[in-house]
Amino acid sequence: MSDFQLHPVAATAHAAQVDTLFYCMLALTGTVALALAFLITFFSIKYRKGSNARRDHPPTQNRALELSWMAIPLLLFLGVFGWAAWLYAQAYQPAANAMTVFVVAKQWMWKVQHDNGRREINELHVAVGQPVRLMLASEDVIHSFYVPAFRIKQDVIPGRYTSISFNADRAGTYELYCAVYCGTAHATMEGRVIVMPPADYARWLESGDQADGLSSYGQTLYRQYGCSGCHDAGAGNAPALTGLFGQPVQLADGRRVIADEGWLREAILQPHANRVAGYPPNMPAFAGQLQEEELAALIAYLRRK
Ligand code: HEC
Ligand SMILES: [Cu+2]
């Protein structure tokens, strides 16, 4: 009984805000529900069959009263809506100094790729106070990345990136769940987020089998798949990719996009549906050829290029 909890620990500032919102909504809806229950009971008893309550009230009207019982709850609930929408938007708005971590979900595990090349499975190590932005991809079906202690949950959808941000402010180990039924072993698809003091985190990051950094792995792939042959030749028949990340791109079909992770993904996997204006349509589609991990490495490389 001693570890009974009304809600999971709050390991981010966002989580504490979500809890405040939750308790305000509980108080608001609870008050309305109790008031209605009281009135129903009160009138049921007062006007029960055979009671001698007066039943001959002439009709009366009180416009101010009627307007206020509509307007006040409406404004209160709209306020809650606005508050919740703002909080929700916050969770999707990464801090400028957020660190990007790629996470690939597959039946039935979470695979994590850190920027320095370190990989882990069903574990995600982060530092206290370091804003993190996760780029989530799925290799098979829809999963959902859910960390109750952070009050974040984001669907992971095959064929595109979704992302979510958090900034843990409390060291500890927190449960990670898949929150969408994704097949037989869904219930076992869980992991841990380990939030460490920055110094411990730095030590952790450097320990373990050190693969090359994600972007240098990406650079190797970039040569291996022949990207450099077209893009770095300087011949002018393919756009230069240096400094592209974060810039606006004009597409042949009139769309204008920002070269973020989502755009790079589309441009590499489905170039025919996503052509850059002013270039010949001769980039081969890499859909089905690149693993999610390779794509993440290429994107990490292009971010830096
Ligand atoms: C045969 C030449 C060729 C190869 C090989 C090639 N590309 Fe391209 N790429 C192009 C051309 C041409 C375009 C512009 C037309 C278009 O969008 O299809 C382009 C567009 C792109 C864009 C969009 C650029 C922008 O301005 O937004 C990205 C990103 C990209 N390629 C990455 C890659 C990567 C990564 C590889 C290797 C996995 C690769 N390309 C391989 C020719 C090539
Ligand atoms: Cu799952």
Give an overview in words:
This protein has 305 residues and is α+β, with helices and mostly antiparallel strands. It folds into 2 domains: 7-39 and 75-209, Immunoglobulin-like; 214-304, Cytochrome Bc1 Complex, Chain D, domain 2. The protein has helices at residues 13-46, 63-91, 198-206, 214-224, 227-231, 261-269, 292-304, and strands at 99-106, 109-113, 119-121, 123-127, 132-138, 143-147, 152-156, 162-166, 172-178, 190-196, 248-250, 256-258. The strands form 3 sheets. Strands 3-2-1-5-8 form a 5-stranded mixed sheet, covered by helices on one side. A 5-stranded mixed sheet has the order 4-10-9-6-7. A hairpin with a 2-residue loop joins strand 1 (99-106) and strand 2 (109-113). Helix 1 (13-46) runs antiparallel to helix 2, helix 4 crosses helix 7 (292-304) and helix 6 crosses helix 7 (292-304). The protein binds heme C and copper (II) ion. The site of heme C has 27 residues, from helix 5 and helix 6. Its cofactor is Cu cation. One of its GO terms (molecular function) is oxidoreductase activity. The chain crosses the membrane at residues 20-43, 64-89. Its main location: membrane. Residues 208-305 form the Cytochrome c domain.
